[in-house]
Write a structure and sequence with these properties.
With 169 residues, the chain is of the alpha+beta class. The structure holds zinc ion. Zinc ion binds next to helix 2.
């Protein structure tokens, strides 16, 4: 099922999500809906907070549904170590039509749990590392615009305010 994605301004996007503590059929349903929603947008990553569920869960697929092997489901992710830096244009499904250059670690090791609650460890590099960094931010109520300069951030905020006033946000 494709669910509506919350947009910038929604309080759920500013909430620190709670750990996933039950791994059953309900979680499987949520994950399926998250992939459906992510692919329909389309996007390469989605945090549960973006569909209004404040649990530490994210889905990632750099192939956007083209390659099943690239599907990543991670519960309670933690970035254990990070190194290097990459700067590149970044956007967010919750802030559609806006993007800007964001610095992220180049490489990282992420620990977390699978959909069944098993421990998993992922070594990520490049775009995947960017994606993990972005999604873990979401679970802590942080958005990519928070990494921009105050000036750039207020420009985006003002544009969104105008769109909201016009009923287009
Ligand atoms: Zn995002």
């Amino acid at each position: 099922m494709i669910l509506p994605i919350l947009k910038y301004g929604a309080p759920e996007l500013r909430t620190v999500s709670k750990p996933v503590d039950s791994f059953g059929s309900e979680l499987e349903k949520i994950v399926k809906n998250m992939f459906d929603t992510m692919y329909s947008s389309p996007g390469i990553g989605l945090a549960a907070a973006q569909i209004g569920l404040n649990i530490r869960l994210a889905t990632i697929d750099l192939s956007v549904g083209e390659d099943e092997n690239q599907r990543i489901i991670i519960c309670n992710p933690e970035i254990i170590s990070a190194e290097g830096e990459q700067k590149s244009d970044e956007g967010c499904l919750s802030i559609p039509d806006f993007s800007d250059t964001v610095a992220r670690p180049l490489k990282m090791v992420v620990h977390g749990q699978s959909i069944h609650g098993d421990e998993i460890k992922i070594e990520a590099e490049g775009l995947l590392a960017r994606c993990f960094s972005h999604e873990v931010d979401h679970l802590n109520g942080i958005l990519f615009v928070d990494h921009l300069s105050p000036l750039k951030r207020s420009l985006i905020r003002n544009k969104i305010k105008k769109l909201a006033k016009a009923g287009e946000w």
